[in-house]
Amino acid sequence: MQTPTRVGNLKEKASFKNPDEFYFKMINSKTVDGIHRPEANNKYTEEERMLLKHKDMGYIFQAVQSERKKVERLSSTLHAVDDKRSNKHIYFAEDREEAKEIRSRIGQSSSTPQFGNIPSRIKRKTASSYKELESRKERVKNLEKLYADMALQKELKKPGRKRKLREEEIVNSASQTVYKW
Q1: Residue 86, CA atoms < 13 Å, CB-side half-sphere
Q2: How far apart, in Å, do the first and last CA atoms of the chain sit?
Q3: pLDDT truncated to tens, each residue of the chain (181 aa)?
């Protein structure tokens, strides 16, 4: 309950108010049971909202394709410096001793360059490129999830009978909600 001094303060504040003061929100809102609520002003029809969502889906799909291309391009330019090349040569030996000799010869005359003496700036650039590649892959994954969610919401808005499946009805347990049309 309000104290008399508080009511008096509110009356005094109201008397100092400018009677010519006007805000558009005074017209576009109303009080319901003493609670100030804005009027529901739907600018768009249901068809217009569906069209806007479809355009949003197109934008997200374009972003997914663009990021996939960037990931592909970046992964093709990066080569695994740390990995050893796989040796695809096949050597034939008559007995075990000859096989050991061939193995030791291959180990000695390894034509792969020594990677221990790579300059640190190149190592940093390579590391940052791999970090960028991982972040782009994560972005692609998030955009694909967003696109799938938007597509599901679009399908759910369409007319027709659909229902959410219960836990015991789902054949493959998935983390997402499963619907049946």
Answers
A1: 1
A2: 55
A3: 567 789 999 888 888 888 777 777 777 777 888 887 777 767 778 778 778 888 889 999 999 999 999 999 998 888 655 555 566 778 888 899 998 888 888 877 655 555 567 788 988 988 899 999 999 999 999 999 999 888 888 888 878 887 877 776 777 766 667 777 7
